[in-house]
Amino acid sequence: MRYFLFISFFLMISCGNSSDNSNSNKQESTSSNDTKRIIYFGDSLTAGYGLLDYEDAWPHVLTKRIKAEGYSYQMTNAGVSGDTTSGGLGRLEWVLAEKPSIFVLELGANDMLRGISPSVTKENLRSMIRQVKSQYPSTKILLVGMYATPNMGKKYAKEFNSIYPDLSKEEGVPLVPFILEKVASIRKLNQKDGIHPTEAGHKLVSDTVYPYLKPLLVK
């Protein structure tokens, strides 16, 4: 995997809670008469930090794509810039009030940046997965993975990088191995901060997630 831009990328991803992006910290929902809903639950990567139009964020791009293919889903972008797994766990209950058919979980990067123990991150993610399962047994869950930056050290990186594949196996949920696979090392696909994907970058993030989400869809 491409690691050489990870340090610069992640050094500021947790700063995505800056007030200069009004799209980052508000939950956005589509509306229709359809009862099926996808909730995208994450941090600034999901929120679309820095984009002029929040509808250019990958969750919106992806939902438009699946609708064009004949799938009828509402969506909620529950991305909050700067969020950690602890923060996500704390706000999960009220987000689940929207009764998702599919729950896409993208959190953990900010835990890593803060040096939070991978065991804590893992258990927070596990708690969220189990809470969704308990509250809505029929809801399908997609876990979205992240990698640690090299500057965190080999031991930390090894422990952190194992969180997502281990949880996928232990909890029986599908996994997107690395959300930034197509964009992390390409400058033109990231904003001027060198951190958050551009509109074009978000389209590629959507492409990365799509093949893992599609098997969960029901017409």
UniProtKB/TrEMBL annotation:
GO terms for biological process: lipid metabolic process. It comes from the Bacteria. It holds the Pfam family Lipase_GDSL_2. Signal peptide: none annotated. InterPro entries: Ester_Hydrolysis_Enzymes (IPR051532), Lipase_GDSL_AS (IPR008265), SGNH_hydro (IPR013830), SGNH_hydro_sf (IPR036514). Gene3D superfamilies: SGNH hydrolase (3.40.50.1110). GO terms for molecular function: phosphatidylcholine lysophospholipase activity. Residues 41-204 form the SGNH hydrolase-type esterase domain. PROSITE patterns: LIPASE_GDSL_SER, PROKAR_LIPOPROTEIN. This is Acyl-CoA thioesterase-1.
